[in-house]
Amino acid sequence: MDYIKQLKNIQKGKVDPVYFVHGTQAFIIEEVIHEILSSTLSKEEQEMNVQRFRLADTPLQFIIEEAETLPFFSSKKIVIVQDFYLATSQKAESAIEHQIESLEPYLKQPLSETTLIIVAPYEKLDERKKVTKQLKTHATVVRAAELSEQETIAWIREQADLLGIDVPDPVKKRLVELAGTNLLQLRSELTKCQLYTGVGGEVTMEAVEQLVAKTLEQSVFDLIDRAMKGKTAAAVTLYKEMVRRKEEPLMILAMLTRQLRIYLHVMELKQRSYSEKQMAGILKLHPYVVKLAGKQVSGYEEKRLKASIMAAADTDYAIKTGKQEKEFAVELFIIKLGTLSISQGA
Predict the structure, then answer these.
(1) Which intervals hold domain DNA polymerase III delta subunit-like C-terminal (predicted)?
(2) Of 57, 74, 137, 214, whose CB count within 10 A is highest?
(3) What's the pLDDT tens digit per position in 231-248?
């Protein structure tokens, strides 16, 4: 969990001259930038000595010139480069010509008064590119990537301490199940829990169930679980709640189909003795999603999953050809899932 280690260093005043922050977790990116700003400059100094640039709007060589310019009435300045796509395989976002070669000399000898923060909010970097190698060699690298389940639990512990609340381990796990691994969402839910319990309070399982809004993915997970266990009425009730929350029936159907396919793929890979990590790589899923799917499929049969996927395809066809109204059609599909669970399980 290198980003937390970097945060602790920054909070102790150990701010490096160049940071390369890459990955899709927006919360990590913003937290790193916020801590560098707070540790380096006062509020008044930030007004004059923080420069933000988008690479699509500004030539890189101009940004480097700015980084080489001394701060204004301050001992430090911050230069932030957003959307650094030059380290990826993405096509150029604008017609601006960048002199990439201007970056290397600065990385080797950065101005001591400047902290340069280069942000690449992308899932993958192009490791073959010279600029990527230079950044990884000379800059302090912070990965703003999806955390594993264990890292997410550890992160929740850190955030709970900052908020002054006690979150027992079983409650942490349930929080992740309900809200997912998106750190922005988790931070929001933890703040909600703090408002409910007060500083110094303990977050109970009951409080989490009451307060935390389920993600669409978690609602779909629960819906399938109810339906496949033959709890048809409960599954239909959950579906109607989702519709009342303005979830689109076709989106719900698509998510149900996707989840059923994940279950089938995980079941097939488990039969071939693949590890959870290997399955996550093959299916391009977060390891935590694979772990949950692995637990679920132990209670399902392959023929039941295949029949359910076929029924989902039939429902999609009926909606798109105008044979059935979408909200009613998806409800019928959920009822059929319950019927399949009984007939196929017999």
Answers:
(1) 217-337
(2) 214
(3) 999 999 999 999 998 999
